[in-house]
Amino acid sequence: xxxxxxxxxxxxxxxxxxxxxxxxxxxxxxxxxxxxxxxxxxxxxxxxxxxxxxxxxxxxxxxxxxxxxxxxxxxxxxxxxxxxxxxxxxxxxxxxxxxxxxxxxxxxxxxxxxxxxxxxxxxxxxxxxxxxxxxxxxxxxxxxxxxxxxxxxxxxxxxxxxxxxxxxxxxxxxxxxxxxxxxxxxxxxxxxxxxxxxxxxxxxxxxxxxxxxxxxxxxxxxxxxxxxxxxxxxxxxxxxxxxxxxxxxxxxxxxxxxxxxxxxxxxxxxxxxxxxxxxxxxxx
Length: 284
Hints:
Layout: E1 2-5, H1 11-15, E2 20-28, E3 34-38, E4 43-50, E5 52-57, E6 60-65, E7 69-72, E8 78-82, E9 89-96, H2 100-110, E10 116-117, H3 122-133, H4 139-160, H5 173-184, H6 191-197, H7 202-213, H8 217-235, H9 240-246, H10 252-263, H11 267-272, H12 278-281
Antiparallel strand pairs: 1-2, 2-9, 3-8, 4-7, 4-9, 5-6, 5-8, 7-10
């Protein structure tokens, strides 16, 4: 593995900048090599140069190959693994900052498959990231150069994703809020604050959301959290306290009470059941 980490500024400084590179790298993976389940504090994009692999994120599993890029937003629990028979080789870039999440979700919203962009000319991304990995010289000089290359990578991605500036933010309020809940469900969201974010009254938001999706925003958010929790309980060995925090619950007790109220079993007992319940798999 070859990796570059920008060290001119601290993580805290990067987080409050508009956009700042965190790391870049290249790796030819061995068969079955995997990362995760893991949750990161920065945005991460991999470009598959050759071979195959698998990504698990948000309860979905994607089979990936050369020409694909997979986008991992911060605070999402993910696992990805190289094929046993044809392990992938990839290059990656990661970044953070005040607008980093917005840029990431604009890319996600532009992708036919959430989190995946297909059919890319990955050689141009390999070349740009290779320039980062080859940088030498003073820290300040490298800082400016790596961030200029980060911007160039993102510019190419937005172009390849055919991001439509005119359509961004012009869906119905219900659609906008659903997308917001889909990508921020792990936060400690209060629906009054969500309504304020979109400039509408909470009662109006609840009404239009229910008209479109036949559940209230609160019911939709709760169902999504529980569905994700069921998936993590079944597929990982993460402690229940970690799963609770990753779903935006203040503590494990509050999570366990809600889980037992909905499923009539505790999270621990649910994890020990041999077969998933069909009603849980269909929960939204």
